[in-house]
Amino acid sequence: MNGTLRPLEWGLLGLAGLLGLLMAVILSSIGDEPQWLPEEPAPAQPAFNLQAPPTVALADLAGTWQAPLFSPDRSPDRVAGKARVTSLSNLSLSGIMITGNLQMAMLKQADGPPLTVRLGQSLPNGWRLEHLTPQSARFALDGRTQTLSLYGKRLPSISPSREPLP
């Protein structure tokens, strides 16, 4: 091995020495104390005046809920309790339970929670469950009847083939 170092080796040795010195400074915790800003005195009074919001009578705001701003026809929203549904189009029959003393239908609403109704009881919209079979439920309202049937999902038919599956 040669006793003299090349200039590149001297440069790398100097860089290693500087990095070692930097590591010693970091590990010696020099400069770890925080430098706080001087405390400023709190202002005596705010520079603005606080004012109470104006009071408005409730009757003056009636137009706000009677003519909704973003509704295209600007008409009031329908009241849920007063409107009567004339058909069962938003309901689907999801199940039927017929036992010795219990006959009930389970219905799914398009936009609400599921409903259960026993034979002879009425739905919230006024339709009364009149007759139940294992596949359908008949409802009546004001002399009209409407029947809902169970929707049975079926698997596609499989025809036997002699070809091996891929």
**Helix and strand composition category:** alpha+beta
Say what oligomer this is: single chain
Helical fraction: 10-25%
The tally of strands reads 6
- As laid out across the biggest beta sheet, the strand order is 1-2-3
Q: Would you identify the regions where 5 or more consecutive residues have pLDDT less than 50?
A: none
Q: What is Rg?
A: 41 Å
SSE sequence, one letter per element = HHEEEEEE
CATH topology label of the domain at 91-149: SH3 type barrels
Shape: elongated
How is this structure best described in words?
This protein is of the alpha+beta class and 166 residues long. It has helices at 7-27, 62-66; strands at residues 91-98, 103-109, 115-118, 128-132, 136-141, 144-149. Strand 4 (128-132) and strand 5 form a beta hairpin. It is elongated, with a radius of gyration of 41 Å. It starts with 6 loop residues before the first helix and ends in a 17-residue tail after the last strand.
State the gist of this model.
The protein is of the alpha+beta class and 166 residues long. The chain has a domain of 59 residues: SH3 type barrels, CATH 2.30.30.830.
Top keywords for this entry?
single chain, 166 residues, alpha+beta, SH3 type barrels, 3-stranded antiparallel β-sheet, elongated
List the helices and strands and how they pair.
Elements (H helix, E strand, L loop, with lengths): L6 H21 L34 H5 L24 E8 L4 E7 L5 E4 L9 E5 L3 E6 L2 E6 L17
Antiparallel strand pairs: 1-2, 2-3, 4-5, 5-6
